[in-house]
């Protein structure tokens, strides 16, 4: 599948500062970092599925630090309850009333670490917050902070103690990416420099308060030509007509694809979306939403690549 080579950003650009700072911590993963940043600029949520120890948690810590946002980490376990995430109400005898104690989900960047180690009941505590940016507890609805960005990590589904995320939960994530092993040069630098978690703690914020919302608005304003919309709809139709998939991409996935393509173009400093932008972000948008009819597993990169090759640009 053709992919677009990232264009160099202006040195004075805040996005360049974010990428540079993150790349100094997460070595050799520029493409994955750009994809995570595009997800944030598109106001989505990010799922990172990979083996333990490849830097998933460190990436979340680093992004929160460089963005200067309030960060909360939730370690998911099999005995966790929804109230451990949302919060609880306690009765205060002095005031003869209940007081709500917010849970760790009330933060700008929430790391749901090893989300598939919790039961489906606990996983569902994130559904309303991720979709509607609010939480309803004991009959009262409370808004989430703005911006609100969930980065969830999960271990491969075949690992012991993992509960696969249901389709409704997977669909709340705009993108799913994997970090993979570092290349030889990056791993050598890692071995020589020691662990990177400490480096993440020392990263300085690259954005002033309120600047992220401005960048998100600018990304959403990137121009999309009618011909590009035709191409996006052709890709959507191809997923829905493909017999190897259980079902095609939904309208929500279509909006996510367009928002992510806009954000990718914005990171590259362009004012309009190209077909290559759509092709670049499509695997991260589609892999966790498309299931193979024959095996029931998620679609692979080869399946998405073949889909793109068979869909004409005009």
From TrEMBL:
<feature type="domain" description="ChlI/MoxR AAA lid">
    <location>
        <begin position="238"/>
        <end position="295"/>
    </location>
</feature>
<comment type="similarity">
    <text>Belongs to the MoxR family.</text>
</comment>
<dbReference type="GO" id="GO:0016887">
    <property type="term" value="F:ATP hydrolysis activity"/>
</dbReference>
<dbReference type="InterPro" id="IPR027417">
    <property type="entry name" value="P-loop_NTPase"/>
</dbReference>
<feature type="domain" description="ATPase AAA-3">
    <location>
        <begin position="45"/>
        <end position="175"/>
    </location>
</feature>
<protein>
    <submittedName>
        <fullName>MoxR-like ATPase</fullName>
        <ecNumber>3.6.3.-</ecNumber>
    </submittedName>
</protein>
<dbReference type="InterPro" id="IPR050764">
    <property type="entry name" value="CbbQ/NirQ/NorQ/GpvN"/>
</dbReference>
<dbReference type="Pfam" id="PF17863">
    <property type="entry name" value="AAA_lid_2"/>
</dbReference>
<keyword id="KW-0378">Hydrolase</keyword>
<keyword id="KW-0547">Nucleotide-binding</keyword>
<dbReference type="GO" id="GO:0005524">
    <property type="term" value="F:ATP binding"/>
</dbReference>
<dbReference type="InterPro" id="IPR011703">
    <property type="entry name" value="ATPase_AAA-3"/>
</dbReference>
<keyword id="KW-0067">ATP-binding</keyword>
<dbReference type="Pfam" id="PF07726">
    <property type="entry name" value="AAA_3"/>
</dbReference>
<dbReference type="InterPro" id="IPR041628">
    <property type="entry name" value="ChlI/MoxR_AAA_lid"/>
</dbReference>
């Amino acid at each position: 599948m053709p992919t677009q080579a990232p264009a160099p950003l202006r040195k004075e650009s805040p996005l360049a500062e974010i990428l540079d700072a993150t790349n100094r911590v997460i070595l050799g993963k520029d493409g994955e970092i750009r994809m995570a940043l595009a997800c944030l600029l598109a106001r989505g949520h990010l799922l990172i599925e990979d083996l333990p120890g490849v830097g998933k948690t460190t990436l979340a810590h680093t992004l929160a630090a460089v963005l200067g946002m309030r960060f909360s980490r939730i370690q998911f376990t099999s005995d966790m309850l929804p109230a451990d995430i949302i919060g609880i109400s306690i009765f205060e005898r002095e005031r003869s009333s209940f007081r709500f104690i917010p849970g760790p989900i009330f933060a700008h960047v929430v790391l749901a670490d090893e989300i598939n180690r919790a039961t489906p009941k606990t996983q569902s505590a994130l559904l309303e917050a991720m979709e509607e940016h609010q939480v309803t507890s004991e009959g009262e609805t409370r808004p989430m902070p703005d911006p609100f960005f969930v980065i969830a990590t999960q271990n491969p589904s075949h690992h012991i103690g993992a509960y696969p995320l249901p389709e409704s939960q997977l669909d709340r994530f705009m993108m799913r990416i994997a970090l993979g092993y570092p290349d030889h040069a990056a791993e050598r630098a890692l071995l020589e420099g020691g662990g990177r978690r400490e480096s993440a703690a020392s990263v300085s914020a690259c954005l002033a308060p309120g600047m992220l919302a401005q960048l998100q608005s600018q990304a959403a304003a990137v121009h999309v030509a009618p011909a590009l919309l035709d191409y996006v709809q052709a890709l959507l139709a191809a997923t829905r007509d493909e017999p190897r998939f259980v079902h095609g991409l939904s309208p929500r996935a279509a909006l996510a694809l367009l928002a992510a393509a806009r954000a990718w173009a914005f990171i590259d400093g362009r004012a309009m979306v190209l077909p290559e932008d759509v092709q670049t972000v499509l695997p991260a948008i589609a892999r966790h939403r498309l299931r193979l009819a024959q095996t029931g597993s998620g679609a692979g990169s080869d399946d998405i690549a073949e889909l793109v090759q068979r869909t004409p640009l005009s």
